Amino acid sequence: MHFAYPPRKDSNAAAFKPRASSSRLPFIRRGRKRVLALGALFFFGIIYFLTRPSSRHRGANPWMAAHLKAAKEEGTGSTMPGVGDHKAPTAADGNPFGADFSAATENLASFGKAPTVVLVTVYDETNFHRAYLDTIRENRRQYAKKHGYGTFSPKVGYYNLNGSPLSWTKVVAMRHALTLFPESTYFWFLDQNAFVMNMDKSIEGDIMAPAKIDAAMLKDFPVVPPDSIIKTFGHLKGQDVDFLLTQDYDGLSTSSFIVRNGEWARFFFETWFDPLYRSYNFQKAETHALEHIVQWHPTLLSKMALVPQRTINAYSKVEHGAKYETGDLSVRVVSCIRTSSAVCENEAAPFIQLWRGSDKQQQAAS
């Protein structure tokens, strides 16, 4: 049985008929509509930029505002146009308690020049005996005099911390020191309960020289031991380091650190002292705040170098960190942490005798 062939199609196809359209503008294609839309967007953008308020009247970026305030404090002028007519903060604004900062400041550089290094220590006269604190002041002054450095020695209570722990005083004191010594290069914060032991070592030559930093700094190293996933930069060069500090067995140590003066240093202290971090209930206040900001802000981490603890921050006991050895720059008396002044002084006594004994030997030799 054969099936019938399918019907054969007509070889002459019907003429093409365009699809009926309701548009009254058939000449506008889809591409042309897109061009017109972009043109309209560009036109209204131009109108916006021409009519928006100027930067002088808009809310300022908080970080830039901090920099502008710092510039005004130091008399360097503004870095942006249009803000030079703002009133600079007065001394009373930053000193609500009327503290005598002139008595806490000393320049031991020759011929009245700006000291290359400023040694900053905050003194707690409420919880420690006056004689012990005078010994520490003598230690600082002797070291500063030998190298022609400056000293800044504010007291706990000089600054209004708005209820924050008193340990935050070190941060605002360092920021204040940048203002008092604008021409100095390095600022070394050394805890009240630490002593300079090696009077021959200089900060600019033996610690902060680029070659010295390159040889000492710990690269690609966990910021917070033992297993922080954030590590120090492996490509950082000594000449680019603006912040040098150490770790102990618990984490970063803020009992001894050095900062190079400059815009980055001002930004660093203003970030560290931000009310957000001061009001947060960190277990170790400013120390844990520092650990937080350097791990979350590459701008800060990119200028930070970790060095072995004994470089600038040896401890009197091995339980908390690297123990002091002869020749180390400084030693921190760890028993002074959360103990009475008497306990602190007893542990500090051998180091005071050692420091004074070496000083007498040097004087006899000269």
TrEMBL record:
UniProt KW keywords: Glycosyltransferase, Membrane, Transferase, Transmembrane, Transmembrane helix
GO terms of biological process kind: protein N-linked glycosylation
GO molecular-function terms, A-Z: alpha-1,6-mannosyltransferase activity
Pfam families named among the record's database cross-references: Glyco_transf_34
GO CC entries: mannan polymerase complex
Transmembrane segment boundaries: 34-51
Claim: Lyase is one of the keywords in the record: no
Cross-referenced InterPro entries: Glyco_trans_34, Nucleotide-diphossugar_trans
Family the entry assigns: Belongs to the glycosyltransferase 34 family.
PANTHER family the record matches: ALPHA-1,6-MANNOSYLTRANSFERASE MNN11-RELATED (PTHR31306)
Name of the molecule in the record: Mannan polymerase II complex MNN11 subunit
Upper lineage: Eukaryota, Fungi, Dikarya, Ascomycota, Pezizomycotina
